[in-house]
Amino acid sequence: MVILFGILCVILVFCFCSALLRWNEVRYMRKGLPQGTMGWPIFGETTEFLKQGPNFMKTQRARYGNVFKSHILGCPTIVSMDPELNRYILMNEAKGFSPGYPQSMLDILGKCNIAAVHGSTHKYMRGALLSIIGPTFIKDQLLPKIDEFMRIHLSDWGNKVINIQDKTKEMAFLSSLKQIAGVESSSIHQPFMKEFFKLVLGTLSLPINLPGTSYHHGLQARKNIIDILSKILEKRRASQETHLDMLGYLMSGSENKYKLSDEEMIDLIITIMYSGYETVSTTSMMAVKYLYHHPKVLHQIREEHFRIREGKKLEDPIDCNDLKAMKFTRAVIFETSRLATIVNGVLRKTTHDMELNGYLIPKGWRIYVYTREINYDPFLYQDPLTFNPWRWLGNSLESQRHFLIFGGGSRKCPGKELGIAEISTFLHYFVTRYRWEEVGGDKVMKFPRVEAPNGLHIRVSSYSN
Length: 465
Ligand code: HEM
What we know:
The chain is α+β, with helices and mostly antiparallel strands and 465 residues long. The protein has helices at 2-27, 46-52, 54-64, 83-91, 103-109, 119-133, 135-153, 164-180, 185-203, 214-239, 246-251, 262-293, 295-310, 320-325, 327-340, 416-433, and strands at 67-72, 75-80, 97-99, 160-163, 345-350, 354-356, 359-361, 366-370, 434-438, 457-462. The chain has a five-stranded mixed beta sheet with strand order 1-2-8-5-3.
């Protein structure tokens, strides 16, 4: 009797689980969709995706092909691992794609943030953005600020054990704050940094606005950041002084053809800080790691930077010609971004029902343009798991059609050259001033984001000792 009851229970649980698993399949059943599985109600396959990471993608691709359906991060999603389709989606936003970033991110970054706007508004905001992070502004205004910042930030690292993950995060944040609001940056950086870190966490959380949730803290942090920035705008307007920084240029009437409201200006500034923060800090941290493990690369990059210093006095800053001369450093940065895959892919949403590669994709479905695997494609990158910056010299790889480390099409990263300038200047002062070794034992996770959960500790000593 007991055995029979046990068997009945097992059968019931099995039937219940099967029904739950069928729920999403039935709910999202449409004619013409690619194959794939939709997982559990509400959660879909998010747990498998986050736990198994790239292996989840590879397993699904082996079963269903380069394009498959799933339900991850709260949405029915088409995952594309097809290089041609990925390129098509990025290059053809006007054919019915919009950014598909999570609601929490859009709410916290603001309705004028670049990922929330489309069409002509996107074009205008992007123009305004490029006017303060593009090559001319980098050369005339930003590079001197970055140089001054890096010299000071890296001035007392010798004879210490430091957590390079924390240091590069601080660096990315403080360096961009200096570029945004040069004069005020030193007085506002502490309250701003506290709020900024909360804002970042909030964008990666579920949009549940209850006290205590990361989303709630994120929204609160947004309010406080708006407050800090609005006060700067007010003070600057009252003083009539000229400021040679991003805010100064955005506020200037005559020189600047982009006229933005205060709300737009503030959302643009938040966008710049947010987009450049994790990308720049993580690439810098991983470059330090790869350089330590590849002495030949470290030797060559040092040679490049000492050559640049040869013609300079100690106090002479890095200028644009020096940046141009840092060819090997640029190659190290690309190789770091490729091998570590700092960005796994980008998200889009369909704005109407559409046909893609013969599949029918309903309006409002998310498309995960998953570009990670292309970084390890042996046809593009010989011996793809080896850290080999020399492969980038000569530039042909940077201009190949599947180079999507910085995205592509109308949303291709506008901060690419600024990011490279910041990381290059950081590496310049780091490798010419210091030697370092890893303390050991620190783990680096590669998915869903590249991070060292307990920090990455290095023992630093002066190079000249
Ligand atoms: C160096 C490391 C960087 C990497 C690997 C990187 C990567 C990317 C990628 C893949 C995209 C495309 C996103 C999409 O299509 O949805 C993107 C867009 C963007 N990036 Fe970067 N980025 C970097 C640095 C920066 C910096 C330093 C800034 C700002 C100063 C920045 C600002 C932006 C902005 C505003 C967008 C959105 C553009 C638009 O929607 O039109 N990025 N970035």
